[in-house]
From TrEMBL:
This is PDZ domain-containing protein. The lineage of its organism: Bacteria, Pseudomonadati, Pseudomonadota, Betaproteobacteria, Burkholderiales. One of its GO terms (molecular function) is serine-type peptidase activity. One of its GO terms (cellular component) is outer membrane-bounded periplasmic space. Residues 78-138 form the PDZ domain. GO terms for biological process: proteolysis; signal transduction. It comes from the Bacteria. PANTHER family: CARBOXY-TERMINAL PROCESSING PROTEASE CTPA, TAIL-SPECIFIC PROTEASE. It comes from Inhella crocodyli.
C-alpha cells in the first residue's frame, strides 16, 4: 500500500484558471453519456459508466495507483483497515507497468500462503492479469483464486491457491524473546497506531520491564502517512525530522515531523532499538526505518527494503466518492543516503530469527 496523505473534503469554490471547466468538452462528455445509454441499453449502470470516465481522466499521465473510489470502495477500505473483514488479505497495485502484491494482511490467506509485498503477478486463475482498477478490485474481493507470482528478489516462480477467510482486526503484536527484549510487530499505520503502541508499551513495562525493543517491519507495506510519522516520533529526539515531502509537480520539499502521543514515555526516545526489514518492507514502513536509522536511534538489520517512496493524497469528493492521487514522494532526512540508496540498507545483514537472537546476545 502506498502511504496515504489525508486531505480535507473538497469544497465548492470560485473557479480559478487552473480549475475552470472547459465547457465544450463537458458538453461533449454529457452528450457521449446520453448517446451510450441510448444506443447501448445493455451498457453498464450509469454510476459505473461515470466512474470509468473519472478514472479515464487519470489514465496515461497519473501514477497507475491513482484512482477515483466509489462510496462502496471507500467503505470497503475503511472496514478492512479498522474492524477486520473477510477476504484474501491482500491488495494489488501497479508498479512499473506490472501488477504486484501491494499489501498483505499479516494473518490473511495470502500472507499465510507465502506471498510477499512486491511479488509480481503472472497469472490469476490461469489467465494473464489485466491492469484495470475494476479487475484488480475483483481479484482483491475474490472468494477463491489460483495465483502465480514471480519474486524478482529470489528469481523464483510460486503458485498458490488462496481461499477467503475472516481477517482479524489489525493490532500490534508484542512478544518477548531474550531476557529484557520486547519484539513489536505493527499493523498497517492507521490513525491510532502510536496511541495504541504507547498504551501497550506501558502495560508490557509494568508486567515485566524490558531494556531493548525490536521493531519488526518485515513485510510491512505502510499506511497513513501521519500515523507513520507519529510512531517514528515516539523513538526520535523531540523535534527531529522524520522525512521531507517532495511534490511531484515541482516546488520546495515540505518537512514532515511526527507527534508522539501524550502518554508516550520519554524513555522510549533513548531505549536501545533494533529495526528488522526485508525486501517486502515498503512505503511508510521504510519511512520509519529510514528516519530512525538516519537519527542514529536504531540499528537496522535484515535485507534491503523495496524502495517505494510515492505518496498518494486521498481527497473527499461529493456524494461519498474519493480521489486517490499520487502527489508526492518522501525523501529521507539523510540526503546523501537518499541519493545513494534505492531502499533502506541494513546496518547488519541478518536473515533468520536465530541469527537475530544470537546477535542480540553478543551486542
Amino acid at each position: 500500500m502506498l502511504v496515504l496523505l489525508l486531505a480535507p473534503p473538497t469544497l465548492a469554490t470560485e473557479p480559478t484558471p487552473a480549475t475552470a471547466l472547459p465547457l465544450p468538452a463537458m458538453r461533449a462528455l454529457a452528450d457521449t453519456y446520453a448517446r451510450v445509454r441510448q444506443l447501448r441499453p445493455d451498457a453498464p449502470p450509469p454510476e459505473q459508466l461515470l466512474l470509468g470516465a473519472m478514472n479515464g481522466m487519470l489514465r496515461g499521465w497519473a501514477d497507475d495507483d491513482s484512482a477515483v473510489w466509489s462510496p462502496e470502495d471507500l467503505a470497503r477500505q475503511s472496514a478492512a483497515a479498522s474492524k477486520g473483514s473477510r477476504g484474501l488479505g491482500w491488495a494489488i497495485g501497479v508498479r512499473d507497468g506490472h501488477l504486484v502484491v501491494e499489501h498483505l494482511h499479516p494473518r490473511g490467506p495470502a500472507a499465510q500462503a507465502g506471498l510477499r509485498v512486491g511479488d509480481r503477478l503472472i497469472a490469476l486463475n490461469g489467465q494473464g492479469p489485466s491492469l484495470g482498477a475494476a479487475q484488480r478490485q475483483a481479484w482483491t474481493d475474490a472468494e477463491s483464486l489460483h495465483v502465480t507470482v514471480w519474486r524478482p528478489s529470489a528469481e523464483t516462480l510460486l503458485s498458490v491457491r488462496l481461499q477467503a477467510a475472516d481477517l482479524p482486526a489489525p493490532t500490534w503484536q508484542l512478544r518477548r524473546s531474550a531476557p529484557g527484549v520486547l519484539h513489536l510487530t505493527p499493523p498497517d499505520w492507521q490513525a491510532t497506531a502510536a496511541t495504541d503502541l504507547a498504551r501497550q508499551l506501558d502495560a508490557a513495562q509494568r508486567e515485566a520491564p524490558f531494556r531493548r525493543l525490536v521493531l519488526d517491519l518485515r513485510g510491512h507495506s505502510g499506511g497513513v502517512l501521519s500515523a507513520a510519522a507519529d510512531v517514528a516520533a515516539m523513538f526520535l529526539p523531540e523535534g527531529s525530522p522524520v522525512a521531507a515531502l517532495q511534490p511531484l509537480a515541482g516546488g520546495a520539499a515540505e518537512p514532515l515531523q511526527g507527534k508522539a502521543p501524550q502518554r508516550s514515555s520519554p524513555a522510549w526516545r533513548t531505549l536501545p532499538l533494533v529495526v528488522r526489514v526485508d525486501e517486502s518492507t515498503a512505503a511508510g514502513a521504510e519511512l520509519v526505518a529510514a528516519a530512525l536509522q538516519d537519527a542514529g536511534r536504531a540499528t537496522v538489520v535484515g535485507r534491503p527494503t523495496l524502495g517505494h517512496t510515492r505518496i498518494r493524497t486521498l481527497s473527499a469528493l461529493p456524494e461519498g466518492y474519493a480521489l486517490s492521487l499520487v502527489t508526492h514522494r518522501w525523501v529521507r532526512p539523510n540526503t546523501e543516503r537518499a541519493q545513494r540508496d534505492a531502499g533502506v540498507q541494513p546496518d547488519w545483514p541478518l536473515h533468520s530469527d536465530a541469527e537475530l537472537d544470537t546477535w542480540l546476545i553478543v551486542r
